[in-house]
């Protein structure tokens, strides 16, 4: 009796397990979250080694992640490259997203081949990982040489032939030289005529204004320094704009005073140029090198400053301009030689 009851329980358990397996298979087949997948090739016929584009696509509900495994078994096809740019999906606007995976592939076997099914994995909103497969694809790969041309007959050797070929290189060089020279002559004549025409059209008052003497550089520099002092508010942005403007005024003045373009030079280049034109301004401990070094620290090293130091830098700039102004320097040179700016207190003497 007990044996019969045991057999009955075993049979019921086996039936329930089988029914459970069938239900799970049916669930996988009828999964409402399963994406719709497809696969396509850009060609149905190709030659050996041709690059083909294999596109795997899937349309799934929003929230269902679809992935293509990194390692794929494509049978006779070899993967050349891969683009998963749309693996996150493109919104279709109806609660679904389109996923696309593009593979570059090639076949190296001839004949009719079959690309096997490709498995894609998807993650349901419940966190379950499931798999769905594409259909297989048929592809025809043809050889590079037709079957009746497997052993083509070589062409018979032909005897060499001699021929006279005229060397055109010298003629071409002369021709192009003539064209270049002619073009330069034409451009020169055209430029002369344009300048002549423009000169005729320039009003007399404009020519007169152009011939007016320029203002002395020391006068212009002193006016700009006075305006900078009157503007105040030196500490904006760590004093850097103030020191940039101050250094530019002094650089402009030195260039205009001694005849060179100082605004586009580095501090080292400016001092080297002054050594050639006014060596007495760049002696060790002189005011000009010290002024440039102090302003560079604030401009480029962001050393910071204070209002008293900014005013002292303004005074130093005015001292440089007043001490080197052309009228004063000419008179001083006629009396005692080149004027030297006073050194700092630490440098020693205050005389020339």
Account of the 3D structure:
The chain has 352 residues and is an alpha+beta fold. The protein folds into 3 domains: 109 residues, Immunoglobulin-like, CATH 2.60.40.740; 31 residues, no CATH class; 120 residues. It is 44% helix and 20% strand. The chain is built from 9 helices and 10 strands. Strands 1-3-6-5 form a 4-stranded antiparallel beta sheet, with no helix packed on it. Strands 2-10-7 form a 3-stranded mixed beta sheet, with no helix packed on it. It has a 3-stranded antiparallel beta sheet with strand order 4-8-9, with no helix packed on it. α4 packs antiparallel against α8, α5 packs parallel to α8 and α7 runs antiparallel to α8. It is flat and about 105 Å long. The N terminus and C terminus are likely disordered.
Low-pLDDT regions? 3-28, 206-212, 345-352
> What is the CA-CA span between the terminal residues?
133 Å
The largest beta-sheet arranges its strands as: 1-3-6-5
Number of strands: 10
> Averaging pLDDT over every residue, what do you get?
79
Radius of gyration from CA coordinates: 45 Å
How would a crystallographer describe the biggest sheet? 4 strands, antiparallel
Order of H and E elements: HEEEEEEEEEEHHHHHHHH
From the spread of the alpha carbons, the general shape counts as flat
Q: Report the β-strand fraction as a percent range.
A: 15-25%
> Percent helix among the residues?
40-55%
H/I helix tally: 9
Question: What are the salient characteristics of this protein?
Answer:
alpha+beta; 4-stranded antiparallel sheet; 3 domains; Immunoglobulin-like; 44% helix; 352 residues; 10 strands; 9 helices
């Amino acid at each position: 009796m007990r044996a019969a009851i045991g057999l009955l329980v075993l049979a019921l358990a086996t039936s329930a397990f089988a029914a459970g397996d069938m239900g799970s298979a049916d669930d996988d087949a009828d999964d409402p979250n399963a994406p719709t997948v497809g696969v396509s090739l850009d060609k149905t016929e190709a030659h050996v080694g041709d690059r083909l584009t294999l596109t795997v696509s899937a349309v799934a509900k929003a929230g269902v992640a679809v992935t293509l495994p990194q390692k794929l078994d494509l049978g006779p096809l070899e993967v050349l490259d891969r683009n998963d740019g749309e693996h996150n999906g493109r919104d279709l606007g109806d609660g679904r997203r389109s996923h696309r995976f593009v593979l570059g592939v090639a076949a190296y076997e001839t004949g009719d081949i079959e690309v096997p099914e490709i498995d894609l994995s998807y993650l349901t909103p419940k966190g379950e990982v499931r798999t769905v497969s594409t259909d297989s694809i048929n592809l025809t790969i043809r050889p590079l040489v037709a079957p009746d041309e497997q052993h083509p007959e070589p062409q018979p050797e032909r005897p060499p032939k001699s021929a006279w070929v005229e060397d055109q290189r010298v003629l071409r060089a002369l021709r192009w030289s003539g064209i270049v020279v002619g073009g330069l002559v034409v451009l020169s004549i055209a430029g002369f005529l344009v300048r002549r025409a423009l000169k005729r059209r320039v009003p007399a008052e404009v020519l007169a204004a152009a011939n007016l003497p320029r203002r002395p550089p020391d006068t212009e520099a002193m006016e700009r320094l006075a305006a900078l002092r009157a503007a105040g508010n030196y500490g904006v942005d760590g004093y850097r704009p103030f020191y940039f403007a101050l250094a530019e005024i002094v650089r402009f003045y030195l260039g205009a005073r001694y005849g060179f373009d100082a605004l586009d030079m580095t501090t080292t280049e400016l001092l080297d140029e002054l050594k050639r034109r006014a060596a007495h301004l760049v002696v060790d401990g002189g005011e000009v090198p010290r002024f440039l070094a102090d302003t560079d620290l604030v401009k480029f090293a962001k050393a910071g400053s204070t209002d008293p130091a900014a005013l002292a830098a303004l005074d130093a700039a005015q001292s440089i301009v007043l001490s080197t102004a052309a009228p004063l320097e000419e008179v001083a040179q006629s009396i005692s030689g080149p004027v030297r700016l006073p050194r700092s207190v630490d440098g020693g003497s205050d005389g020339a």
